[in-house]
Fold this sequence. Notes:
Blueprint: H1 2-21, E1 26-28, E2 31-34, E3 43-46, E4 52-56, E5 59-63, E6 65-69, E7 74-85, E8 89-99, E9 104-114, E10 119-128, E11 133-136, E12 140-143, E13 148-151, E14 153-157, E15 162-173, E16 176-186, E17 191-201, E18 206-215, E19 220-223, E20 227-230, E21 234-238, E22 240-244, E23 249-260, E24 265-275, E25 280-293, E26 296-308, E27 315-326, E28 335-345, E29 350-354, E30 365-368, E31 371-374, E32 377-382, E33 389-403, E34 409-422, E35 425-442, E36 448-464, E37 467-482, H2 574-593
InterPro entries: OstA-like_N (IPR005653)
Keywords: Signal
Pfam families: OstA_2
Amino acid sequence: MKTYLFSIIILLSSLPILAQKNQEINYDSDRTLKNEERYPGALILSKVDNQVYFDHDGIEVWCDNAVFYKSDNFFKAYGNIRMQQGDSVRMTSNYAEYNGNTEFAFASGNVRMERPQTTLETDSLFFDRIKQQAYYRSGGKVTDTASVLTSKIGRYFMEEDKYSFRNEVLVTNPDYTINSEQLDFYSESGHAYLYGPSTIVSETSTVYCERGFYDTRADNGYFVKNSQINYDNRILKGDSLYFNRENNFASATNNIRVIDTINDSRVTGHYAEVYRDKDSVFITKKALAASLQDRDTLFIHSDTIMITGKPEKRVIRGYYDVRIFKEDQTGENPMSGRSDSIFSDQQSGLTKLINISSRGNGKPVLWSGENQMSGDSIHLISNTRTEQLDSLLVFDNAFLIQKDSIEGFNQLKGKELTGYFKENTLEKVVINKNTETLNYMRNNESQLIGINKTLASSVEILFEEQQIKDIYYYNQVDGDLTPEADFPPNARKLQGFNWRGEERILSKEGLFEGEAEPELTKIKGIDLPDAPEEFFDEREDDDLLLNENSRLNPKVLKNRKTDSIKFKKKVLPDSIKKNIIEKDSINNKAAKNQ
């Protein structure tokens, strides 16, 4: 008994659904005719004063003429068609078909579907009311409040208020254009998701990505796969990029590169900010700036690097634990250095190694070959034409140390030091004001003669292959050459001596020695959307989406790449028009006879 009652309940609960599915199409027409020979079982409906009207389960249709197969719950509409579903969808076209049993519609010829935020225009459109989806594959255009979107294939999901565009997708905005392989667009928010190779092009920038998000109304977005932003003279790359067009601002996270296409330089790190209007770049997390100078590359590494100024007036600033490295063309005598901060002006060719904070690890120091130079600040001057090192200046507490070829250290100190380079190699050094020297004197067989300690007003040192060749003393005050045995070991270092050879950088990789790898930000990617079910469901041969009297061959209502359906500009088939004319003529004659 319980089973029987349960079966009745199930049957009764399904009745409204069945009734709704088979609900008949209502209609109203000023003129109704029949032409059994041409359209068996059909009514021919025509406008006189009012348009033909259909109503079915919340959808209303107006047209000038129609062929209505009442028993099949199917009609074909012609001329000035308006179709409306509630307050959410309004559509116009020149031709349309509708099957009340499957709730499936087709429209062609100047199709225009309007939603609160968007308008879709296409040549032919399929509309599945059960799925609440519209679909075109012969090219379409969607006009949004901010942009116009076109594509070869498009699908609209009404419940999500989402368009999915594929194949030759183009977004046109007064300020930029977007080209994409696939783009999903949410009309209420104006949010766009880009999939596959995509570009956003404007007068001032070009964005490329293979996975990204863009807010078409706020003009900002982020990109997470093979992404880069090209400005006039800079290229920004990274695992994740953020872009704000209104502020001309971009940032990059993880494995980033900023390439200066004019000055042949680049900066790398794991976080960067670029302000186009200010011509500035900020970079941190293993920041490294590299610029080509006379076919060699100068590397600058620090906690933070800032680059400002127009291309011809670039200024590089590095802060906290600055390290520099530059190889000569032979690769045998690299130059390297350390300081708290660095300032490099590419226009003047001046680079300053300075201390400006308590975070510094001692005085600035520079190594040229085996020669260590230190002081309160160090200035390097490059020839802006040849980009070769020209000279260097060490201010206050200048100290030059060179490790002796066998033992001990050759040392020279004074208030200021000036060094001169030839082909990027240290050739001569002059030390002025209260100079002291201590050097190991050897004969031609490299035998130690003694240790010379001298006071002078100034000293000139000549180098050959990075080794001290000659020393000239000016206004010598005091000097002695003492046998090694008679020179106390505790007196073999001048006051202020600080050999920092363990800090010397011998390779590009050495720039990061002793540093922990930065903790990288976990990037939230953009997943590929789930593939939607095919628009056209597989159906039995006798179960048609439209009707056997449809102008569309059932093969058209299959899932395939593109269509080339074109609307034939006929208000009504000639046979229907002829039938109407004949009927009017008969009616007019009958009226006259009366």
